């Protein structure tokens, strides 16, 4: 059977699932799954004998839950009493599940939530345990909350070292554990917090990091989109340096690394301040093929009148030999490029506000 492509689109009012052949020109969608529930996170886990879909959905009546499907969304299962729940005595309640990512070990999945906490599952997302040392971190009482809330929205398990995980939240910054979650250290040296007073803009923690990514073949190199600033670290977060020169704006939410080329990254710049749409209102994905030293705009097929933003998890790449790129916008449109950003076409429109997009070859 020829490879197919599966696309998960999470919105503020449910989940849509698209499928296409390897050409990725024509798509069929089902949905809404979890109608009228907020879907901030989803995952296509292809590590098992068959793909498993995971979804972090939040009902206004029943609260958040991690759902799983082993038949590509035809049916869904939940963990009784919720897969992600604080232990007794924590004096906290999970509001949303912002992140679901695979770990380095086959059955391990990590979740990031609001309020800001990290969770680990050893059964492919059926149950989760709180990373207690991070929850008890002495910095936590001083973490702020971005406009979207205080949440761990980025989790980067090391691809070969199960004891190493990098995590980020707004507004708290980057943290890393190298001992299996036993301890966590801030990793923010060089990241600017331009909303702080002059002379205080490089604190130990408190930066409003929007997203981090890395390539599995070069795990020591991290790329970061900040609340004002695009950065690269070549030593797994010990030191960050700006790579924003050449971009029309250094504000944005997503940053994506090419699955086959560790020096190729993609961002979607938008204006800062109160104009949260692209410069000149032109939808453009910007690509660097040299780890952020130079940038080029990709816009063939994208609109020149685009007054909405693309959120931190609403852009992704698939793992076909010729990589496909995808982004969803706050106007409910999802765009696809089957040729690494060279050309684009709209695959679905008029959905609710898009929060997360995930794609994989199946």
UniProtKB/TrEMBL annotation:
Reading the lineage from the top rank, the first entry is: Bacteria
Q: Which SUPFAM superfamilies match?
A: Oligoxyloglucan reducing end-specific cellobiohydrolase
Locate the coiled-coil region(s) and give their ranges: none
* Record protein name field: Exo-alpha-sialidase
């Amino acid at each position: 059977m020829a490879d197919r492509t599966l696309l998960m689109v999470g919105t503020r009012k449910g989940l849509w699932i698209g499928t296409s052949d390897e050409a990725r020109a024509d798509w069929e969608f089902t949905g809404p799954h979890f109608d009228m529930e907020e879907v901030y996170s989803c995952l296509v886990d292809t590590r098992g004998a068959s793909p498993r879909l995971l979804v972090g959905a939040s009902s206004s009546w029943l609260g958040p839950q991690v759902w799983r499907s082993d038949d590509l969304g035809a049916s869904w299962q939940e963990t009784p009493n919720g897969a992600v729940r604080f232990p007794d005595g924590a004096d906290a309640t999970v509001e949303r599940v912002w992140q679901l990512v695979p770990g380095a070990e086959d059955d391990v999945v990590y979740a990031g939530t609001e309020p800001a906490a990290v969770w680990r599952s050893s059964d492919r997302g059926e149950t989760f345990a709180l990373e207690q040392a991070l929850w008890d971190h002495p910095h936590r009482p001083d973490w702020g909350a971005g406009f979207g809330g205080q949440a761990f929205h980025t989790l980067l398990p090391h691809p070969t070292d199960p004891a190493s995980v990098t995590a980020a939240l707004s507004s708290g910054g980057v943290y890393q554990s190298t001992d299996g979650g036993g301890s966590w250290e801030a990793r923010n040296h060089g990241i600017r917090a331009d909303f702080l007073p002059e002379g205080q803009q490089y604190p130990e923690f408190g930066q409003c990091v929007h997203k981090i990514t890395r390539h599995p073949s070069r795990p020591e190199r991290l790329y970061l989109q900040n609340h004002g600033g695009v950065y690269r670290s070549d030593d797994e977060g010990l030191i960050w340096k700006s790579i924003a020169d050449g971009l029309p704006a250094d504000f944005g939410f997503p940053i994506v690394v090419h699955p086959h080329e560790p020096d190729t990254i993609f961002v979607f710049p938008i204006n800062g301040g109160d104009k949260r749409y692209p410069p000149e209102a032109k939808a453009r994905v910007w690509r660097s093929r040299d780890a952020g030293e130079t940038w080029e705009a990709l816009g063939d097929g994208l609109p020149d009148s685009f007054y909405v933003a693309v959120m931190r998890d609403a852009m992704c790449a698939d793992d076909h030999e010729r990589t496909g790129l995808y982004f969803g916008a706050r106007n409910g449109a999802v765009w696809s490029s089957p040729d690494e950003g060279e050309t684009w076409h709209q695959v679905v429109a008029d959905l609710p506000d898009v929060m997360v997009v995930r794609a994989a070859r199946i």
